[in-house]
Design a protein that fits this description.
Blueprint lengths: L1 H20 L8 H7 L22 E3 L3 H6 L14 E3 L39 H16 L4 H12 L12 H6 L1
Helix pairs in contact: 4-5
């Protein structure tokens, strides 16, 4: 019972911590954090807009759509969030010419610097926590970890329209697909 409680508490901690930390993700200076969160994070909050240093707009996702189509393999992991990305299959309608952010990457003008988790509500989890939840479901459903089972669940989840409210797709996910 003690092991079960530890696992349960660790998972709750992961989900709560993810939701609490979400609005402050990818701030590159203390000054930016203090400006947007003058009292710190004291509860669940929605991500602020604009994000001072976001380069979500213009991130790249360039899957080989021809090969994926030939192999009947799904590739659209962005769904309704594709507008933020430079893809090989959708229209990008932003310009990214501002470079005054601390990270030095090309970014959209301030009014178009959408937070990486734009649209999430206070207390919602990011895709990272959603993937942990997916793994837990997969382990339960398959009676333990099954690489084939999890990959099938993972690909299905990532390519199901409307399944992921979080617009940010980490680089490792974009490269894997």
């Amino acid at each position: 019972m003690m092991l079960r409680e530890r696992i349960e508490n660790a998972l709750w901690g992961a989900f709560v911590g993810d939701a609490l930390g979400m609005p402050s993700h990818w701030y590159y200076t203390d000054d930016e954090l203090k400006r947007d969160f003058p009292d710190g994070i004291r509860g669940y909050q929605a991500p602020p807009h604009p994000h001072p240093s976001s380069f979500l707009v213009g991130a790249r996702y360039q899957p080989d759509t021809d090969s994926a189509t030939t192999l009947s393999r799904p590739y659209d992991i962005l769904q309704e969030h594709a507008r933020f990305y430079r893809t090989s299959y959708s229209h990008f309608g932003f310009t990214t010419d501002a470079r005054e952010q601390a990270h030095g990457n090309a970014a959209a003008g301030e009014s178009k610097r959408y937070h990486y988790h734009h649209g999430l509500e206070a207390g919602e989890n990011t895709l990272g926590a959603d993937l942990l939840r997916l793994l837990m479901r997969s382990v339960t459903q398959h009676g333990g970890y099954s690489q084939t089972g999890f990959l099938s669940d993972f690909i299905g989840f990532m390519t199901t329209p409307g399944a992921i409210p979080d617009p940010y797709r980490e680089t490792y996910l974009r490269k894997w697909f």
